[in-house]
Amino acid sequence: QVQLVESGGGLVQPGGSLRLSCAASGIIFSINAMGWYRQAPGKQRELVATIISGDSTNYADSVKGRFTISRDNAKNTVYLQMNSLKPEDTAVYYCNVDGKSSWYETFSVWGQGTQVTVSS
Fold first, then answer.
1. Distance between CA atoms of 55 and 18, rounded to whole angstroms?
2. Which candidate, 87, 98, 96, 88, places its Cα nearest to that of 6?
3. CA spacing 20 to 30 A to 41: which of 27, 30, 93, 98?
4. Could you report how far apart the first and last alpha carbons of the chain are, in Å?
């Protein structure tokens, strides 16, 4: 099985920065895509950013130019650098990783979520 451990959330003032981390562990043969999603109270979970093998990235329009997703393949870890944070970025942020445990077995797992609150 594959587990994800997220860290880096917290309370920050508008205009501030935070860096989220998500480390995958367990039986991992390869990782295809890693991504961050968020869910605000009363809203559906939405995509924030994804990065796939080859380091191709994709961002939600609302975070383009402010957030940067990156990955460390040696550590099976994905990061989300969040700058110029706004109150509307307040949400629980979830990490998602898609990969293979063997030549034939695939997995898609979610992290436990980390709270990000942007408030003065």
1. 21
2. 96
3. 98
4. 40
Report the distance separating Cα 64 and Cα 75, nearest Å. 26
Residue with tokens 């609302």: 62
Angle 42-39-86 from CA coordinates, rounded to 5°: 100
Long-range contacts of 51-60 (CB under 8 A, 24+ apart): 51/78
Of the CA atoms within 13 Å of residue 3, those in its CB half-sphere come to 3
Tell me 18's DSSP state. Answer: E
- pLDDT, one tens digit per residue, over 73-85 is 999 999 999 999 9
pLDDT in tens, 52-68: 977 899 999 999 999 99
